[in-house]
Amino acid sequence: MNAWLRTIFALLLSSVLLVPAWAELPAVDQPAPGFSLPDQDGAMHALADYRGKWLVLYFYPKNDTPGCTTEACNFRDGYGQLKALGAQVLGVSVDDTASHLAFAKKYKLPFTLLADADGAVAERYGALTNLALVKFAKRQTFLIDPQGVIREKWLKVDPDTHAAEVMAALKQRSAR
Question: Which Pfam families does this UniProt record tie to the protein (predicted)?
């Protein structure tokens, strides 16, 4: 096989292997996909556990990386206000429970981090990137109402301002 054909073959093979997982995104005003995942302490959490409360379900790529740390710390700093608005916060990544525990302790995160080790929940929410050998959650957030219905979703998240955006959306909904 000549060099030109090898190059074309390599490009085709790599494009097949590096295709991200594309799940259909859950729609606003539709029920949120259910889940049951372990937290940083190994306790299980299910969507049904949060009925009767607003839920901020935020997906993020990796513990202890710059953008993810900024986003988590901003949710930490606004956590009291979010709770006062009747909301719980859950962070989700494909990191394991031990990594979540270290991350939560290091930054004194007052909210729960869920370990979606196989990426199945992130995939159900359309928030999984699967690069063959590497999986990670996309930085996306879903605001779920007390009845389990998605009311807002953010697919393009700026870690510096996102917690404030979520808080503003909750305040606006509380004022209705």
Answer: AhpC-TSA
